[in-house]
Design goal:
The chain is of the alpha/beta class and 865 residues long. The protein is built from 26 helices and 26 strands. It has a 15-stranded parallel β-sheet with strand order 10-11-12-13-14-15-16-17-18-19-20-22-24-25-26. A 7-stranded parallel β-sheet has the order 3-4-5-6-7-8-9, with helices on one face. The protein is globular, with a radius of gyration of 34 Å.
């Protein structure tokens, strides 16, 4: 079994990966080798694969086949490295703006001699008794009486230190349950399937399930692979295999169904300890850096392909969803990955590793104290991957690593802890193959100037604090795709327009000086996510703005255009209009923010039909918004803040779900007119609008059938709630700092039987700093769903009548000194009461002698004072 798994880990080299590599090499030689490559893919590679299959069926020792595959794999790696060095020279010359083409002899020096000796050390990973004692003692000493420690294991031989009181063997799932799970994954991706074929596949599936030893993991994995080929013959062939009854063999069968690139990507997980939680983005970046992902599809980026690989591994159950949108590899699959890849992948995490085989190419160190002499410089000089996860590594080990890493010229991935960064970074400029550099733990460390020589670098992760000055050399990293770290420091990088592969640029500051002009954005067409362009007042007209070439940035989701508010002259208005006209975005844009724009006119490149969110902030010249329903017909969120001269909103798109209007001068009629068709609106915020005196009427508000949240703040002239009671779905209502609002007039009607002013659907009501409010009286049945009620800073509030709020659970009263006593009858449903800043009331509620203490003594949670 072990020998077979080693072969599986090497067979990917006899795939089209070879032809992809050769195709790249021939392109540098400017040679048309399409016929030779076609022959390679259709004849030679299939012959390689037939040869391997024949050797596997033979009873003869496989050592010669293993050696041949190992040599082929090493030659492939060496060819990759030589091509990489050639590309490095091209990139170096591009940076230097040289036009002379380097001699092709560099490419032709691919070494053919390979000497590889395999060594394998047994690795017993079971914890000793002392380890178990150190783990369990804190739990046993600090646990409450009656607490239990539950340990799950696949082994019946338990450590003595556990002293188990009970052993509970888990029963296998019923076969029918396993069958349902298996078929769920087998048919999961099928949109439609012929009923006769489905019945036939179900019959075959039941026979397959009988072989799966009732393992849920195997059922998901095998079912997931069969889902790719819903043909009865393929399913029968799977059933006829003798190895599905063995869990590891069944998982191996699933692995064998993966394409060669996916096999390499799956094996990569063996580099990390069991239980590691993986972030999709980080793993995809690592796969790209390692060269596992190649694109022949111009419509998909490497990242898109990597995500599709990850999704396929998830659908095949090679990866399991964890918490917080991370994933992990099941222990059984992790065992498989380790066995397949143990010739190339190694973790140093215990004292069982005595030496490192020369075949190891990917090294993960979680305990640097165990390194000792197991790192031989000559044996690890071909490492493309070094990840050090020991954050307490000693200075002596650092010195040892420094000697070793000076020889590690082929590194593609380097991940270092903080206490080793500054020492090792001194020689980092020699790592010509490096693609992924993680220095996120290096807070405050200055990045060396030689960082600018890493022309292959694709991913740079730095601390979010410090290390800012040396980022100026980032302009030479012309292969950089992703930067994570101090984004403010990124704005200081001159000539950032050179980084044409860059996908991450959250903020750009337009300046008049060379190297920081808006034209730097011209060729950054791979940008995605969000982009904020600051200091647009520095752009001198439409022609300069056009140089940003925003209309060709089709991957951008969110765009913010920001002017500094320092000039409101007519010339500034004309200039702003021209600049905005030149900043036409791609029609795919989903979110647009305009900040500090000083012209009353909108650009001619509207509409943006795919836009989902529009924010307009601090635009003093705008008095009337254009017909938004025509310009942004599918907009879901509209935010209008600090438009002090805005009088009219015009027609708003019926698709709106969120609407925020703050600091403008719209009238009662303008507000009503803008809301009348918003049947999809869910959230409405009206703040700092001193010109409205009443909310819209019943006729308007009854059409807002989706509105659940309404927040009103600092509307100084607001007196009436209008037709609030007509809102059929309102659940949360908040009034804050509305001094003229006489709430006793808009609260539910009293005992007279009239209709209440607030909607019966309301669940939360907050009233803050409404100084005209004097009392609150609730009639029977008016607010049957109200759960939470809060008063804060209502200085005139003197009396409450709450007994008929039959669903009320939380009552909070803060800084309402006029309330001298609680009502005689509080709702029996109350679970929580908080009172603060009400001197007389607080004293009356003191335990045990306060006059109002008997009214609240039964309430489970009380916070008085």
């Amino acid at each position: 079994m072990a020998e077979a798994l080693v072969l599986e880990g090497a067979k990917w080299v006899t795939s089209t990966i070879i032809s992809s590599l050769l195709k790249e090499g021939f392109s540098y030689l400017d040679v048309d080798a399409s016929t030779k490559l076609q022959n390679l893919e259709t004849t030679i590679i299939p012959q390689f694969q037939l040869l391997i299959k024949a050797a596997e069926r033979s009873n003869e020792p496989k050592s010669e086949l293993e050696q041949w595959l190992r040599k082929l794999k090493d030659a492939l790696y060496e060819a990759e490295d030589m091509l990489d060095l050639y590309k490095y020279q091209l990139l170096k010359e591009k940076v230097s703006n040289l036009n002379t083409h380097p001699a092709l002899k560099r490419f032709k020096k691919v070494a053919r001699k390979v000497n590889a000796k395999a060594s394998e050390e047994p690795c017993d990973k079971s914890a000793n008794e002392e380890d178990w004692k150190n783990l369990l003692d804190p739990l046993a000493q600090n646990g409450k009486k009656g607490s239990k420690i539950l340990v799950t294991t696949r082994s019946e031989n338990l450590p003595v230190a556990l002293h188990p009181q009970y052993k509970m063997p888990l029963r296998d799932l019923e076969e029918n349950v396993i069958f349902l799970l298996f078929m769920h994954h087998a048919f999961g991706g099928a949109e439609s399937i012929d009923i006769h074929l489905k019945n036939e596949l179900e019959d075959i599936g039941r026979q397959i399930v009988q072989k799966l030893y009732r393992s849920p993991l195997v059922a998901k994995a095998v079912g997931g692979q069969l889902s790719k080929n819903l043909e009865a013959n393929f399913w029968r062939a799977a059933h006829d295999r003798d190895n599905l009854h063995d869990t590891q063999q069944a998982l191996l069968w699933s692995y064998q169904r993966l394409d060669a690139p996916l096999q390499r990507c799956f094996s990569y997980f063996s580099l990390f300890p069991k239980g590691t939680r993986f972030d999709v983005e980080k793993i995809v970046y690592l796969w790209i850096a390692e060269g596992f992902i190649n694109s022949s599809n111009n419509s998909m980026t490497l990242e898109d392909i990597g995500i599709s690989y990850f999704d396929e591994l998830v659908s095949g159950s090679f990866l399991q969803l964890s918490d917080y949108e991370t994933y992990y590899v099941h222990d059984l699959f992790h065992d498989l990955a380790e066995n397949i890849s143990k010739e190339e992948y190694l973790r140093i995490e215990d004292d069982q590793v005595k030496k490192i085989s020369p075949t190891i190419r990917h090294l993960y160190i979680s305990d640097g104290s165990l390194l000792g002499d197991c790192i031989s410089v000559n044996k690890i000089e071909n490492l493309p991957t070094l990840i050090i996860a020991d954050y307490s590594i000693s200075s002596s080990v650092i010195d040892h690593l420094l000697v070793a890493t000076n020889k590690l010229k082929k590194l593609r991935v380097l991940d270092l802890p903080s206490n080793i960064v500054e020492t090792l970074l001194k020689s980092i400029g020699d790592l010509k193959h490096l693609r992924y550099l993680d220095l996120s733990e290096s807070e405050g460390a200055e990045l060396p100037v030689v960082l600018g020589k890493l022309y292959h670098l694709q991913v740079l992760i730095t601390s979010h604090y410090g290390a800012t000055t040396s980022l100026r050399n980032l302009k030479n990293l012309i292969s950089l795709r992703h930067f994570k770290g101090d984004y403010d420091a990124l704005t200081t990088v001159p000539d950032i327009g050179r980084l044409t592969s860059l996908q991450t640029l959250p903020e750009f500051h337009a300046k008049k000086e060379k190297g920081y002009d808006i034209g730097q954005l011209r060729n950054l067409n791979e940008l995605r996510g969000s982009l904020r362009i600051q200091n647009l007042e520095n752009i001198e007209g439409k022609d300069k703005a056009v140089e940003a070439n925003l209309k060709n940035k089709k991957h951008l989701v969110s765009l913010e255009l920001n002017w500094k508010k320092d000039d409101e002259s007519d010339s500034r208005r004309d200039l702003d209009r021209e600049v905005l006209e030149g900043l036409q975005p791609h029609p795919n844009l989903k979110e647009l923010t305009i900040y500090g724009y000083e012209s009353p006119e909108f650009p001619s490149w509207l509409p943006l039909r795919d836009l989902r969110s529009l924010k307009i902030y601090i635009c003093n010249a705008l008095e009337v918004l254009p017909p938004m329903s025509n310009l942004f017909p599918n907009c879901h969120k509209l935010s209008i803040w600090d438009l002090p001269n805005l009088r009219k909103l015009s027609s708003l798109p019926p698709s709106l779900k969120e609407l925020e209007i703050q600091n403008c001068i719209i009238t009662d009629g303008a507000l009503s007119q803008s809301l009348e068709r918003l049947t999809s609106l869910e959230y409405l915020d009206l703040s700092y609008i001193n010109t409205i005196t009443t909310l819209p009427s019943e006729e308007i508000l009854r059409h807002l059938i989706a509105l659940t949240h309404l927040e009103i703040e600092a509307c100084d002239s607001l007196k009436s709630g209008g037709g609030l009671y007509a809102l059929p779905s309102l659940e949360m209502l908040s009034f804050e700092s509305c001094p003229c609002l006489e709430l006793e007039m808009v609260m539910p009607a009293g005992e007279g039987g009239g209709r209440g002013i607030l909607p019966p659907s309301l669940r939360q009501l907050d009233i803050w700093e409404c100084r005209s409010m004097k009392s609150l009286i609730v009639a029977a049945g008016d607010l049957p769903n109200l759960i939470s009620l809060e008063f804060r800073g209502c200085l005139s509030l003197a009396s409450l009548s709450l007994s008929r709020l039959t669903a009320l659970k939380d009552l909070n009263i803060y800084y309402c000194p006029g309330i001298l006593a609680l009502p005689d009858h509080l709702p029996k449903s109350l679970d929580s009461i908080s009172i603060s800043g009400c001197p007389v009331l607080v004293e009356r509620c003191r335990s045990p002698n306060g006059e109002d203490w008997p009214k609240i003594a039964r309430i489970p949670y009380r916070d008085i004072g």
